[in-house]
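Reading a protein record of the kind used here takes only a little practice. An example makes this concrete, so a full record is given next.
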Amino acid sequence: MMEKDKAGIFSGAAGPQERVEDAVCNGTVRREKEDDGALQDDDVWMSDIESCWTYRDWMKTAEAVLEEEQIADAAVDAWYLMEYVTGMRRTDFLLRGQEAMTEAEVKRYCELVKQRASHIPLQHLTGEQEFMGFLFRVNEHVLIPRQDTEILVEEALGHLKGGMKLLDLCTGSGCIAVSLAKLCRGLSVTASDLSSEALKVARENGRLLDAEVSWIESDLFARIEGTFDMIVSNPPYIRTKVIDELSEEVRLHEPYQALDGHEDGLYFYRRIIAEAGAYLNPGGLLLFEIGYDQGTEVAQLMMDYGFEQIYVKKDLAGLDRVVAGFKGN
């Protein structure tokens, strides 16, 4: 028998098919008494649960808990946490889903579901996020890489070739710089960020993915030397007043410094565009990720500073996502 302090986190469930109201509130597993149907605390430890609660049961229970807490994509997150804890892939789950989870797996799974139910991002629980086919380490010091940013990387790749020099400003996790270094052979990559904690994550990602990147702690161009054939950046671009309207996962758990684009969201675009010409080779390209409603304004800023052939690239949802322009010769 398990000792009482090791009881599962899920509680308030009569069985795997019952609706879970309070499954992550305390450390007692409860069951419905057959005599009167009332839910009561009872000494139902892992030895009892293992006989009937399977991988599939626990995942369905977790999904119900996450839905109750209004977690978007509750079923997806319940699965990813199951995969993370057990190491099973979908095919394994199809074959073994009716087997009972082990005590250690249940304990860990319940802990993680409880944290996800409190709106801690899934990626902060697993410590990783896939981007451009690579697995990146993430934590509370960096923005979680998003699929929208892959548009920026793919657009950059269309203009790059070996032997070129690239600068990534506001690198965060390093997902842009590392991806470009991996996907374009012979590219010379420099990446910078103001946050020393973010750079620790970026350096680790570069090491784990065996990417050759020079990392510099710098406030934009302050410590950057030399010139480049391309500058890319996904700077903070959320308007300050909008940050409080973002999801709990973003506004409470991702770094504020990496979100806040000041009053109109354009502060960092202005700074970068104003200085970028001095760090670009003739004909060099400046590319930004932007907010969906910032294309016209950022393009105008680039025009004001003499950039040419400026264009806006849309994402898969049809929204403006990248602005690019060339330095004149």
